[in-house]
Amino acid sequence: MPIAPVDKVWMNGEMVAWENATVHILTHALHYGSGVFEGIRCYETPRGPAVFRLREHLQRMERSAKIFMMEIPYSVDELMDATFELIKVNGLRSCYVRPIAYRGYGEMGLNPELNPVDVSIAVWGWGAYLGDDALKHGVRMTVSSWRRHDPNIIPPQAKVTGAYINSSMAKLEAVRSGYDEAIMLNPHGYVSEATGENLFVVKDGELLTPPLAAGPLPGVTRASVMAIAADLGMPVFERLMTRADLYVAEEIFCSGTAAEVTPVREIDSRVIGEPGPITLTLQQKYFEIVKGQDEKYKDWLDFL
Fold first, then answer.
1. Of residues 88, 136, 159, 291, which has the active-site annotation?
2. Among the four 213, 221, 248, 279, which has the fewest Cβ within 10 Å?
3. Which fold has domain 132-290?
């Protein structure tokens, strides 16, 4: 889905025209993947635009940076203020938010220490990541031939730009094979996550998700779904799963900022079916929360 340009992008403390929001060709992150980023959504609510769990996302970006020994030169509070200002400047009621901190132009080579850490935030209007039909009827997935990376190669708990070539190859393979999305196994053959989403499985009446030790990103939406499920009397069990567990699941759905809560209707030609009752209940509650329709979770919304 092409991005429709907006007026401004926030770059290192300044509002820059969209067409001028560029970086030097020798930016370190372009060559070596030395950047950390987040995906966040702002929703229109009865009280006005609200960003879903903005602080938690920016705190995760701060943790990702720490893993790679990057010091972000702005505090979480400063980046929250910048995000609010940017959404207002662009006159958006709902949007996708992409903050990124990256090693900029300086020295060339693998050692990044002498390169500055630049920070930018972009916003744009974005609908359902996997399509509106996917939210209603589910997506077709395949288990990828590409494995999720080993934690001693690239730490999976960090949302680092360079690591996403792994997900990109899995996504490309899936789409070219006629599927919507790919599921990735970890180096030991256990289910980890999709290319950009966490996974939840209903099997024998239990709601399951791969543990962080299996290599999924510790998703903010994943944590939100787990909390919502527990509040609804559906505890989530973190459990190692094989691809065969997926084939015989009663329900499967994926979660993420972009994907929100999207059902899975088929995996490798094994039909799971239309969205089941647990998936539909959690999906409905999630959208009520992000759209400001449930006061119990109002602390998850940062209003402009």
1. 159
2. 248
3. D-amino Acid Aminotransferase; Chain A, domain 2 (3.20.10)
